[in-house]
Amino acid sequence: AKIQVFIRAKRRDKWEPTNFSLAKIGKMRRIMVEFFDLKVPVKVEAVSTNHHSLKLSDSEKPPVLNDHIVSMEASPGAPKCIFYVIPKGRGTSRVLVSAVPITPSHENRKILLHLWDIQVAGHKYESSQAGRRMSVTNVTNKIVSLAVGSEATPDDSTTTDDNTKYDSDILDVHSGSDSETESEPIEPTSVKNCT
Questions:
Q1: With b meaning 16 or more CB within 10 Å and e meaning fewer, what string describes 125-152?
Q2: In this model, does residue 63 exceed pLDDT 80?
C-alpha cells in the first residue's frame, strides 16, 4: 500500500503532494491510501484521539459526520481510499491508520499502517516561512508491503497510548519511501467504499 499526503493553497485549488510527517499543521490535509495487487477486500480505518483538535472526514465538504473516525473499504476494483484531516482547535492529536483484511480467517485482525502525532497550529501558520518550509520538506510517500504472514507471537503486535492493540502477524508490514516521488477499537457508524 502507498500512503500519500496532500495540501491545497486555497479552498478551490488543486491538491498537491506535501510533507508526509504532519508534525504541525494549520490547514486541512487529504490522505490517500492506495493498494496494489489487492486480492481480498480491506477495511481501512482512521482514528483521531483528540477530536477537539483534529477531526476526520471521508469528504472535504461539511457536514463532518464521523468527527473522530472514518471507515472505508478498499477492494481489487476500487483500491484507493481517501480521507481528510481537519484542524479544529489548538492542541495535539494522534491519528492512526489501520487495515483489516476482510477474510474469514483474518476477520477482526487490525494492522497499524501508520501513526501521526500532530500539533495543530493557527491557520496563519501555513503561510509563514516555517509553514511553507514544512510543506515542501520530505515530500515522499510511505510504502507499506502487505502479505499474509505466519502465526502470531507475543512480539507481533503494537499497543498504542490509547491501549488499542494492532496485530502485525497476519501482514508482513515493511515501511519505506517511494524513490520515484519527490514531491480499545472504535466501531464506525458506517463504511464507505473506496474508489
A1: bbeeeebeebbeeebbbbbbebeeeeee
A2: no
Please name the residue ranges forming H helices in the chain. Answer: 129-136
**What is the value of pTM for the model shown?**
0.75
C-alpha closest to that of 54 among 64, 45, 44: 64
- How far is it, in rounded angstroms, from Cα 139 to Cα 19? 5
Judge contact between 36 and 2, C-beta under 8 A: yes
The total number of residues written for the chain in this structure: 195
What pLDDT, on a 0 to 100 scale, did the predictor assign at position 173?
38
**52 near 88, Cβ under 8 Å?**
yes
Question: Does pLDDT of 190 surpass 60?
Answer: no
Separation of alpha carbons 93 and 29, rounded Å: 14
Give the span between the Cα atoms of 71 and 46, in whole angstroms: 7
Enumerate residues 6+ apart whose C-beta is below 8 A from 13: none
Please, what is the average pLDDT of the chain?
76
CA angle 90/91/97 to nearest 5° reads 115
Q: Which three cell numbers stand for residue 25?
A: 499543521
Q: Which domains does the chain have, with CATH numbers?
A: 2-193 (2.60.40.10)
